[in-house]
């Protein structure tokens, strides 16, 4: 077939990303390219021949090797040329393969199978392969990087945020441990679902009509056929494998995709000039803007979010491919081919996020500045804009513990006074000696301070109020690092 310049390809996956992500592109090609689609169908046809010969007691190691070599010699261009005549992709593939195998085995090519016995089985084989060989290793690398980062920054103070407003203190490691936990669970689920992908050799309507004419035990023939491809039979087939096996795997891909997009959003927002707590790596020759030389944009995080926007809506097609009339119609024939694009887009986003986390920097001074409300006296914000305002919660809790029923309102009035007078929360609290004394006494009683007189120092240093953030970050990093070490081994095809 005629070769063409890579820049004449239509999909950006096949020009822009195949160049910038060459290693990933090369890893995906054996599984989700058109060449891989043809090769996997050939592999399924050879596996069917091997199963027939095995059932007949005629299979030898030499004959298996001959058949496998014959299958490997098929050029996709030959199949496409033959399809111009047959107008049927699998019949074209069968016709070509028959010319490659020994003449006495040619009658076994496609014997007892319908097209989808080959197509759905080959698709399951490829999706299982790409998941174990590309998707899971890529996700695992990202997860381990997140584990390392969460552990490293487990005790680095950071202000927590809800609704985009300062809440109470956490740590950087704790904030990233959210994604360690969410992505880790999704990785394990992807692995489970990939291991459960099914194939079939049940014929035109799934009732084994054709194979009952060939062998006494059609289900045994099916098991042997599928075992050669590392698969098991679908519990019930029409002409199609039950679509939910693949659907659930693709939906879990999308769950992981959403988690990564959420992480990308958090990271890029924390790089805003007015926040400036984190920063992406930036090369010495890298340019942030064509007109503003000072710009260092969080473009990789933005790129991940953009890929999610492009590919997430395709899950609607996955749901629509779930429906086929009676035993089968062809309404999924074209749409299902674009599953490859989705897998590629997902992997590109994971790869890009891996690079972001690898180069992620932390500005500890800025983190502490923001946590302590360094802009509080200049800010016109309300409540959380007060320097040290994040410490209103422990003040309220401690005061309530002393028996003050309207403690929340008491502390709220102190925050309003701090805002009105342009002072820090600790300074406003110091102006309420009776409240401070009660709080200090409770702190001493709980062993939080050596004496009640030390209470004010606690409210000046919000980094001391971070609950179990550091402990949780370390525990989750350790848990998922261990889980990743025990996962992602591809089941044997035997």
TrEMBL record:
PANTHER family: ADENYLOSUCCINATE LYASE (PTHR43172). One of its GO terms (biological process) is 'de novo' AMP biosynthetic process. The keyword Lyase applies. The lineage of its organism: Bacteria, Pseudomonadati, Spirochaetota, Spirochaetia, Spirochaetales. InterPro entries: AdenyloSucc_lyase_C (IPR019468), Fumarase/histidase_N (IPR024083), Fumarate_lyase_CS (IPR020557), Fumarate_lyase_fam (IPR000362), Fumarate_lyase_N (IPR022761), L-Aspartase-like (IPR008948). The keyword Lyase applies. GO terms for cellular component: cytosol. SUPFAM superfamilies: L-aspartase-like (SSF48557). One of its GO terms (molecular function) is N6-(1,2-dicarboxyethyl)AMP AMP-lyase (fumarate-forming) activity. Residues 387-477 form the Adenylosuccinate lyase C-terminal domain. This is Adenylosuccinate lyase. Keywords: Lyase. It comes from the Bacteria. Pfam families: Lyase_1.
């Amino acid at each position: 077939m005629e070769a063409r310049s890579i820049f004449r390809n239509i999909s950006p996956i096949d020009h822009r990303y195949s160049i910038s992500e060459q290693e990933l592109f090369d890893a995906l090609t054996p599984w989700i390219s058109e060449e891989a689609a043809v090769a996997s169908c050939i592999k399924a046809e050879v596996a069917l021949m091997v199963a027939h010969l095995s059932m007949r007691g005629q299979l030898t190691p030499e004959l298996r090797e001959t058949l496998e070599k014959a299958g490997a010699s098929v050029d996709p261009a030959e199949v496409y040329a033959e399809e111009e005549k047959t107008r049927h992709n699998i019949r074209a593939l069968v016709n070509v393969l028959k010319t490659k195998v020994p003449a006495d085995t040619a009658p076994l090519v496609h014997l007892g199978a319908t097209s989808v016995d080959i197509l759905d089985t080959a698709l399951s084989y490829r999706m299982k392969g790409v998941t174990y060989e590309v998707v899971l290793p890529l996700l695992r690398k990202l997860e381990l990087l997140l584990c390392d980062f969460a552990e490293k920054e487990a005790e680095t103070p950071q202000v927590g945020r809800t609704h985009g407003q300062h809440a109470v203190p956490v740590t950087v490691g704790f904030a990233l441990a959210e994604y360690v936990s969410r992505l880790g669970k999704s990785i394990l689920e992807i692995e489970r679902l990939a291991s459960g992908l099914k194939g079939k050799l049940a014929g035109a309507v799934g009732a084994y009509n054709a194979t009952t004419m060939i062998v006494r035990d059609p289900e045994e023939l099916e098991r042997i056929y599928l075992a050669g491809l590392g698969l098991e039979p679908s519990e019930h087939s029409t002409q199609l494998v039950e679509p939910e096996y693949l659907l659930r795997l693709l939906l879990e891909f999308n769950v992981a995709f959403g988690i990564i997009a959420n992480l990308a959003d958090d990271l890029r927002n924390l790089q805003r000039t007015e926040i400036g707590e984190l920063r992406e790596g930036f090369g010495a020759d890298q340019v942030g803007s064509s007109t503003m030389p000072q710009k260092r944009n969080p473009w990789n995080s933005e790129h991940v979010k953009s890929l999610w926007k492009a590919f997430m809506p395709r899950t609607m097609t996955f749901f629509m491919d779930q429906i086929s009339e009676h035993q089968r119609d062809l309404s999924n024939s074209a749409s299902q081919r674009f599953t490859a694009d989705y897998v590629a887009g997902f992997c590109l986003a994971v790869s890009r996020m891996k690079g972001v986390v690898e180069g992620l920097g932390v500005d500890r001074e800025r983190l502490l500045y923001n946590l302590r409300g360094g802009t509080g006296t200049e800010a016109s914000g309300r409540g959380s804009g007060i320097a040290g305002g994040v410490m209103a919660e422990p003040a309220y809790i401690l005061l309530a513990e002393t028996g003050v029923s309207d403690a929340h309102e008491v502390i709220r009035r102190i925050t309003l006074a701090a805002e009105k007078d342009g002072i820090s929360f600790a300074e406003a609290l110091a102006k309420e000696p009776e409240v401070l004394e009660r709080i200090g006494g409770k702190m001493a009683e709980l062993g939080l301070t050596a004496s009640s007189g030390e209470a004010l120092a606690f409210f000046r240093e919000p980094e001391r109020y971070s609950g179990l953030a550091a402990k949780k970050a370390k525990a989750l990093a350790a848990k998922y690092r261990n889980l990743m070490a025990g996962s992602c081994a591809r089941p044997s095809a035997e």
